[in-house]
């Protein structure tokens, strides 16, 4: 059985009241989340929600021609599968692990039973959902109005907020898929950031050398998303 200290590596689980967390512990199942693993496919029936602890999961919208773009990123601050408790039980999005790690999953029955109690868990999950919607909305605006350089900075910062340390295992092909752009554009933007001394990129690993510089270079979208998570959710946000 999962222990309270282990599951509290996920900030949303850590924010649960003690009584609710203890009810969940027997049903929380540890899971490995390897790079590229599809947590759920678009339009599939959701049977679990996932609480990443050391992994990052991207929510992608995939077009009929196979092209895709990331609409949100979820890590230790939240959960994957909000459609399950919002009543839809499925979503047109695909969830794919973008940074390998671990997490926990909870079955649909256990989650919906807790949600139906209309207690503190309901409010916490609804506040998280509002923060996630804010991230999706801001991502859409950013992709339409800001430069690829700024988008890459935003994406790197949001990813770092959900990991320990300053390194990301990430290929340019994967970044291009997440941002919905050509690989050559990512190569150019990453080269500019490296030339400015903000990052170091080599062999699929990105190391952030100057985070304050990266924050100055990005657009306002990063701070908008970060502040919304901090405003809506108790405890330390993903970037603190």
TrEMBL record:
Cited Pfam families:
cNMP_binding, HTH_Crp_2
Q: Which SMART domains match?
A: cNMP, HTH_CRP
Q: Its domain of life?
A: Bacteria
Q: Which PROSITE patterns match?
A: HTH_CRP_2 (PS51063)
Under Gene3D superfamilies, the record lists:
Jelly Rolls, Winged helix-like DNA-binding domain superfamily/Winged helix DNA-binding domain
According to UniProt, the name of this protein is: Crp/Fnr family transcriptional regulator
Q: Does this entry carry the keyword Ion transport?
A: no
Identify the species of origin: Variovorax rhizosphaerae
Domain called HTH crp-type: residue spans: 146-212
Record-annotated membrane-spanning stretches: none
Keyword Transcription regulation among record annotations: yes
List the keywords (alphabetical): DNA-binding, Transcription, Transcription regulation
